[in-house]
Specification:
It is built from ten helices and no strands. It has 257 residues and is mostly helical. The protein is globular, with a radius of gyration of 17 Å. It is a multi-pass membrane protein.
Length: 257
């Protein structure tokens, strides 16, 4: 029993590192690997999701260090993500307890696949970093979009970070590298932190797995963020397309099961 427990912790640590390394490159998708791994160990979905959410906060913390050192983030963009998205996260978390999620999971899978194909078609997407000024129209459009994405973040289990990344690129003409930084820090730490807290209040977190998951998330997030900065926007764009395609397929399969 002890050997099996040690083995499961080692496997979880490796999976956590790999999934969060990839997520730090693309701006989302850690749940594609980490959440199924927890389910495979026999955890009920509610406990696996709550445990995954806590670990995903560590991803944001680890990935934030390399990005914050670059000082490429703006406070007004950060506030827009937080003020617009957090109410959506709270509403989504409440809604998830009273509504079935199979239809929404399927729809999110279709939309995530669309993100992949859209990025592939738009060859120059995320290649600039103009940091367009925020006027009233952009605030309204941006806030509405982030609220909807926040709702999906609280309502469903994975994939929404990819939408924040692409939304920040389309709305403000940011580079993939900078948009991923916003997603990892403000979605990873704050949105997922709120989700983890709300799920944790119901006693669903499996604390035995948390140390190894946090270690894997911190290391994976930190090294993934450093690697993405070194490789640059073109490389991140390719990884984003691969991850969004994989997450889309995974969500479709989950929605139909």
């Amino acid at each position: 029993m002890l050997n099996n427990d040690i083995f499961s912790h080692i496997i979880l640590g490796i999976i956590s590192f790999f999934s969060n390394f990839i997520s730090a490159l693309s701006g989302g998708g850690a749940g594609l690997i980490q959440l199924p791994a927890l389910l495979f160990l026999g955890l009920p979905f509610s406990k696996a999701l709550a445990t995954h959410k806590v670990a995903s906060v560590a991803l944001g913390l680890g990935a934030s260090i390399p990005h914050l050192k670059r000082r490429s983030l703006r406070i007004n963009y950060a506030l827009l993500i937080l003020i617009s998205g957090i109410p959506g996260v709270l509403l989504g978390a409440y809604t998830s307890s009273i509504l079935p999620s199979s239809f929404s999971t399927t729809l999110l899978g279709i939309l995530t696949l669309f993100l992949s194909f859209y990025s592939i078609k738009q060859k120059n997407l995320g290649s600039s970093n103009q940091k367009l000024s925020i006027n009233k129209l952009r605030i309204l459009i941006g806030s509405f979009g982030l609220f909807i994405i926040g709702f999906l973040n609280g309502y469903l289990s994975s994939g929404t970070g990819l939408f924040v990344t692409i939304w920040m690129i389309i709305l403000f003409d940011l580079s993939f590298s900078v948009a991923v930084a916003y997603t990892l820090i403000f979605v990873g730490i704050f949105w997922n932190g709120i989700g983890a807290f709300s799920l944790g209040m119901s006693g669903n977190i499996i604390w035995d797995y948390i140390p190894v998951l946090i270690l894997g998330s911190l290391l994976g997030g930190y090294l993934g963020a450093k690697f993405s900065i070194i490789k640059g926007t073109k490389f991140i764009k390719v990884v984003f397309e691969l991850v969004s395609f994989s997450v889309g397929i995974s969500l479709l399969v989950k929605g139909f099961l």
